[in-house]
Amino acid sequence: MLFQNGNLKVRKLEEKDRYLLAKWLSNPLVLAFYEGRDNAFDLDKVKKVFYSSKDDEGKCMVEFGGNEIGYIQFYPLDDARKREYGYFNENIYGIDQFIGEVEYWNKGIGTLLVTSMVKYLMDHKKAVRVVMDPQTRNTRAIKCYEKCGFKKVRILPNHELHEGKYHDCWLIEYHK
């Protein structure tokens, strides 16, 4: 287990989790803001995307009250991404997450998850900043992130291809 905060647990992704990822990433409600409804996952795609890369991402499952409910990943920003975002030699981490079990939406769990992950990255990875780049139209997520202490830095125009169209995203950051 990476960390626990009350009923919330975050642990490293395991092989058995592929079935839940395929379930969640084939749900149009989840895909509306994560990956795109035209980009559903099956088990083969889950294996290719989540299990075959040798990158620096910390790929994790999110549990709440003993149930697997979502996914979160964290990764140090490489130099190219730092330059793109206007940062330099700081230790900066990015995070991406979703709650795949939609009955857990709008219950404050996303806020608990993001604040807990930021604390973990600051305390254990010595991150100076944590950044995300949500689509500007994802107002529910942005509201959650602002509750967690993230601030909007700037618009990233045409930053993410989603459902066949490029969308603007916010660069948001949490800074000590």
From TrEMBL:
Entries under SUPFAM superfamilies matching the protein: Acyl-CoA N-acyltransferases (Nat)
One Pfam short name: Acetyltransf_8
Superkingdom as given in the UniProt entry: Bacteria
Protein name: GNAT family N-acetyltransferase
Presence of the UniProt keyword Transmembrane helix in the record: no
Protein EC: 2.3.-.-
Domain N-acetyltransferase: 8-172
Family annotation (InterPro entries): Acyl_CoA_acyltransferase, GNAT_dom
Keywords for this protein: Acyltransferase, Antibiotic resistance, Transferase
Gene Ontology molecular functions: acyltransferase activity
